[in-house]
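Researcher: Batch entry, complex prediction.
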Amino acid sequence: MSIWKAYIAPLQAENEHGDFIEITQFVVNKNIGAVNRMTENNEYDVGIAPNDSMGIKLSNDNGDFSEPGSVNSIFPYKRAGSKFKITYLFDKYPPICGFAVAGISALGPEIEIYEGILNDQDAEQDIETDTISFTILGYSAALDGLETVTTGISTSDTVQSALFKLMNRIEFTNLVLVDNANINPGVNPTISTFNGATTFLDDTTVKEAVTRLLEASGSILYIENNTVYVSARTPSSAVEYEFFGQAAKLGLENIQDIKDYKIGTNRTFNLWKWEDTTLTSRSATSIGTYGALKKTVNYSAVTQATYRQTLLDYYKTEFSEPKIELDLYTPIDYERIGLQLMDKVTIDYPNVPIAIGDGSLPVWNTGSMVWQEESTFDPNKNFFSWPDGLFNISIDPNTEWKIIGIKIDSKDDIMNLKLREI
Amino acid sequence: MSEKIRVYEVPVSDISNPNFYVTITDAIATDKGDDIINFMRNRDLQSSWMTTGSTDAANTEILCDVSDSSQIDDIFLSYHNLGDFKFEYWSGSAWVLIDNVTSNTEDFYHYEIVGGVITTQIKLTIYGTIVADEDKRIARLILAKKLESGQFESWPIIEKPTQGTIRKSSVMLSGKYFLSEGIGAFLVTLKWKGVIGQNDIDLIERMFLWRKPFMIWLSGGDQTQFRFKLTGYRNEDMYIMKPRKDYINAYYKGLYRAMVPQTIDLVEVVE
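Model: Structure tokens for the complex:
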């Protein structure tokens, strides 16, 4: 039995939020919605992920969630920009009369699953049912509403330094932690390396400016535990979790399902070209095997030809060979819900051999079995034949995977991890 | 002698318990099977812990550390080849004998510790295999605690015992079926036309209301009470299960002094 809760922290004044107020009892039909975070923009491309978002429908018969100025509204200043969060409590074996069984009860804390800001633009009120629907946007959406300030940013700034200066705004740091130590671009040149000026930042929103710098440095941006991270597409160094399939022998089954198993050609690009130039980077080996899978780019921040080539080569190295991707579904518990984007995991999903012939599984034993030519085949001699398998796929536990997407569904306590082979 | 259905808590030795540690001591074996210790905890009779290169002279020792003091009422070994062996528990100051077995020829072992023991360690010492000097092998080692009384006093009807492997069936154009199968789960319904004993009521309510899985042993220790040796009814068939439906406990025809009909739909669970 798990417990999901929803909270709102209304804006009291500009950049000033009140305390979180629990609003779980107003959530309609327990419809907290699914929370979805990704590092790439879609299944078939590479690029900066859009803002994550989720929907919520609340009972508004008392007007608690109406616009500011309404009677009973909990919003004294404005609705848009108010913080919203969802928490999870794995209260599987709750205490009885205040006593919990040691070793069995999970007296864990309330864990924040998702935090974002309330979007007022598409709020819809239904008069008949007295409900109101909102979209909650991830905190990165706050960058969309900020105009870029280029003061203090020069061409001698590295990408890391420029990103920090762009995001270190009270409107954003009021919501998340922006720390230079967590900004580690894949490639970190000075701006002068790829652009003679900072004019590519002019007349942009912070989100646009950040996106241009991310593209120019082969980086991704994601927010975990209210902290901003910029990094290359590299996973954690240690294996953070092991998943076991239905036939795994060395661990308890914790994979509910595996879907959308792709061999990776959907996100393989072996011929990179800079638009309107002759600059290309190609992997001849990959093209020979998979054909030309071309991607044309034009990252506006990068004007220097030398760096453009460097960037093309960087992306080609990252994406020229297919990497298997799959969606892994697993029941939620405290350990698994703590997994984060770019965490490294393993999957032990063995097949089950089914004997053919006399009912015994063949075992290769040097000296007692021989390979035979088809033309001189003698059935009286021991021969080796591959057994059949119960499933059509098996996954080696020695293969490592990184988490590139997390979707948490409160409806059935299942989380969906999108994994990419490392 | 016929045995009624027994019910246990999820064994402390189960693979779901991260605080259960096994140490193997064998001075002769070239491989003590340290990497595959979990094969005797993984609820799977098709995988076994085993040694390589061991002999009877090794007196192989399997030390089970349960970390926190735990009540152990019953010990099971399934699909094993142990001929002479001994179980002991740690009293806090000394090893105390539980059971000493000699000249065994069966591949299934069950011992009910009268009154149970509360201990932090159980030790199995193996002095010989059924066929002398074979490598030791155990498919399943269970250290279990009874749930409530641990055994029904009545015999429910065992309905629809199912080895459920079929996850999905699709019909092809020809009309033939394509079946997608998984490893499988055991499902069974226990049905009483009327429960008349308070102990059975207590056990049934515990199974429903404590919201944790438990281990069911349909044979209770006597598979010969069934005419045939059927999967699900064998001594080695023990399943971790939970009720799939809600608990309903109406008296028969609403009469306060009547018996209580009861049905439990059980499904094998992961945790």
